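2024-03-11 09:14:02 DEBUG pipeline.ingest accepted 1 chain
2024-03-11 09:14:02 DEBUG pipeline.ingest length=269
2024-03-11 09:14:03 DEBUG pipeline.predict start
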Amino acid sequence: MAAPNDPLVYVDQLLKPLYWLIPIFIIFLVAREIFRSAWIKGLVGEFTVNRALKYNLPERHYHLIKNVTLPSAEGTTQIDHIVVSTFGIFVIETKNMKGWIFGSATQRTWTQKIFRYSKKFQNPLHQNYKHTKTLEDMLGISGDAIHSVVVFAGDSTFKTEMPENVNNVGGSIRYIKSINRELFTPSDVKTIIKNISSGSLECGRKTNSSHVLHVKNLVEGREAALLENRCPKCGAEMVIREARKGPNAGNQFWGCSTFPKCRTTAPLN
């Protein structure tokens, strides 16, 4: 038993009113880690872009569809936002990142730099290419009518020259509005929206979990196959091809030698 004049007793009495702060501090640390997670950052970025598209693109001309998971030849592909309009279809990939961003249309990976911290990430244009091709095949619509758009929603700065379809939120809105040649009638737009809705998978935990597992397996299998210069889908030889149209016109890439039977592609570098 502690003596009446034991200094530990007085310390305990002084700190006792503060003990209730300990669980609050633990909750704060856990919450901070959660909000730092890539999943939360992705949700915040998608929410930011969603609001910008909703309030800056007139509903009479543009119809927004968000969080779409489509079946593809390789499994599934997940698209952040699709904007359907009489001027074409805009497939939007969102990146919620901060710091300096380095990259070009042809590079396989881009770089994020925050002070001395550097991180490589997949070229979002290449990532979005699969989205546009899946949508093109599903709808049976020419690729000229489907536009790839990459939006950086965070506090980031481009340190290299980017293609016009890669921008911050405001710049991406301006890019979408700059494409104003009508390609579809209002009736066409309704049909496209209906076909996307009927062709997409139902949102939910099961669909998301299946997609995450598919992406993991796909990346592992694709990297192993490409090391042997063979198609990760059908096993045929991969050959160097050159894009003839679209934002990547003139750029070279790996393509399956059995095209058009197999449409698998991969970045050249």
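2024-03-11 09:14:41 DEBUG pipeline.report Residues 38-267 form one domain.
2024-03-11 09:14:41 DEBUG pipeline.predict end
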